Amino acid sequence: MGEGVCRKKKLFTKKGRAELEGLGLGVWASYRRQELLTMLDQFDGSLRELDRAVAEQAEQNAAAVLLMTHPGVGPVTSLAFVLTLGPVERFERSKQVVSYLGLNPREHSSGGRQRLGAISK
User: Fold this and answer.
1) Residue 115 — φ and ψ, nearest 5°?
2) Distance CA 37, CA 18 (A)
3) I want to staple 11 with a disulfide (CB 3.0 to 4.6 A). Which of 6, 16, 24, 62 is the partner?
4) Rounded to a whole number, what is the distance in angstroms from the first to the last CA of the chain?
């Protein structure tokens, strides 16, 4: 940004990275840039490995596989949901699931007036 480059998320594309590497910076700034790019490459490798492990675990869980059939629900979301809830049979109604997850609105009612607030958690 100090060099007039503001690409936001596009900075992490191939074109954005090439532009970042092509910037003419001072000696220490260039060293730091290379150090940070090396760290980014290491983290990307680790994240890919973790994503693969989560996808593998999700494929082994029948409930997670069923949840992944819904649009927008991937391995991370489905596995987290299944592991957070545990056995679904312990809930008689959907309202109990909503309350357990803290997704029900807070209620401040008095004298016949019902006021609903933000979600409880």
Assistant:
1) -120, 120
2) 11
3) 16
4) 37
Residue 17: enclosing H or E segment and its boundaries? Answer: helix 14-21
pLDDT at 22: 80
Locate 101 and state its tokens.
């997850």
pLDDT digits (tens, 9 = 90+) for 48-74: 999 999 999 999 999 999 999 999 999
User: Which stretches of 1-121 are DSSP H helices?
Assistant: 14-21, 27-59, 62-67, 75-85, 94-101
Per-residue pLDDT of the chain in tens (121 residues, 90 and over written 9): 566 666 666 777 888 778 778 877 788 988 988 898 899 889 988 999 999 999 999 999 999 999 999 999 999 999 999 999 988 889 999 888 888 888 888 888 888 888 888 887 6
Q: Is 31 exposed, middle or buried (0-12, 13-18, 19+ CB in 10 A)?
A: exposed
DSSP state of 108: E
Domains of the chain by residue range: 1-59
- Distance from C-alpha of 44 to C-alpha of 3, rounded to nearest angstrom: 25
